[in-house]
Design a protein that fits this description.
Layout: E1 11-17, H1 24-36, E2 42-48, H2 55-60, E3 68-72, H3 78-87, E4 93-97, H4 107-117, E5 121-125, E6 132-134, H5 139-152, E7 166-170, H6 171-180, H7 188-198, E8 203-207, E9 209-211, H8 220-238, E10 250-252, H9 256-260, E11 272-274
Parallel strand pairs: 1-2, 1-4, 2-3, 5-8, 6-9
Antiparallel strand pairs: 4-7, 5-7, 10-11
Length: about 290
């Protein structure tokens, strides 16, 4: 007799991994145990991002309660790894998480409920009023994160934390956004979310319990300049106005949920998104 565990996976989670031989076994054990207790079939996709340690061997030999498969991505960069992993998925719901499992996996329960209700994008936010954040690295890094998110808020539907490594998507939407992704570095989250918003998707932020883990490869000194350059490219590709350059016509994008249900009272208006090269009048509607 069949069970709900038979058939294709309904949820696939991508875990990007660069030289994660030390942290990956513990992270996979936590994730697989959590997924085994969910009321839907789930699988894990570990993307080996050109590691030089035993990361790939750990995945190949993994024996756990849910399937874990290996994808190799020779192009370096977390964005490149997440893109490769998402494009390997087929499930109706997809997402990605960091190998260190800094975000407590209890947030998966709410994320799955929201996805099944029809929310197209669900992200963990350390700046949510009900989040618990423990040991958030150095003050300089925290200040940098706040500044970063203020700069990009208009691109990503107004959410306050774009960099938390806990993001989930309607499967076809996530794959379509990943296919357009060009940023390979740490700013890739912004571009990925921007592609979703440009397709009319609303972004739902949920509270998380987040604990800083040692071993992060991000460095404020080494990566800040590259992040700023990446943001400039993302904004340029989005056709957003740059000082001294004529503005591109702005067309409001209607969130998916407003097309499926009655609008909620006191709900903030959708974020205007600039569509490059598209002629429009102020009264034009998105198609």
């Amino acid at each position: 007799m069949g069970t709900w565990r038979d058939g294709p996976a309904l949820l696939e989670i991508v875990v990007p991994a660069y030289n994660e031989a030390d942290r990956l076994p513990g992270g996979l054990a936590l994730l697989c145990d959590k997924l085994a207790g969910l009321p839907l079939r789930a699988e894990v996709v570990v993307v080996d991002n050109a590691s030089t340690d035993g990361t790939a061997e750990i995945v190949r030999s993994w024996d756990g309660p849910v399937p874990v498969r290996l994808v190799r991505c020779e192009r370096r960069g977390k964005g490149a790894a997440v893109r490769a992993g998402l494009l390997e998925t087929r499930a109706p719901y997809v997402g990605f998480m960091d190998a260190d499992m800094a975000t407590d996996l209890a947030a998966l329960d709410e994320a799955i409920v929201l996805l099944r209700e029809g929310r197209p994008v669900v992200v963990g936010s350390r700046r949510h009023g009900r989040s618990v954040v423990q040991g958030y690295a150095l003050p300089l890094r925290r200040l940098g994160a706040i500044t970063f998110n203020r700069i990009v808020r208009d691109l990503v539907g107004g959410i306050q934390d774009t960099q938390c490594g806990f993001k989930f998507f309607d499967g076809p939407l996530g794959r379509a956004a990943a296919k357009q992704l060009r940023t390979t570095g740490f700013s890739f989250d912004v571009e990925l979310l921007a592609h979703c918003v440009r397709q009319g998707a609303s972004v739902t932020a949920i509270p998380v319990v987040w604990r800083d883990r040692p071993g992060s490869t991000f460095s404020v000194r080494r990566h800040s300049l590259q992040c700023m350059l990446d943001l400039a490219r993302i904004r340029a590709r989005a056709g957003l106005r740059v000082p001294g350059v004529p503005a591109t016509p702005i067309i409001p994008v209607v969130p998916i949920r407003t097309m499926l249900a009655e609008p909620k009272l006191n709900e903030p208006p959708p974020v205007p998104i600039a569509l490059p090269g598209q002629a429009s009048t102020p009264s034009a509607k998105s198609g």
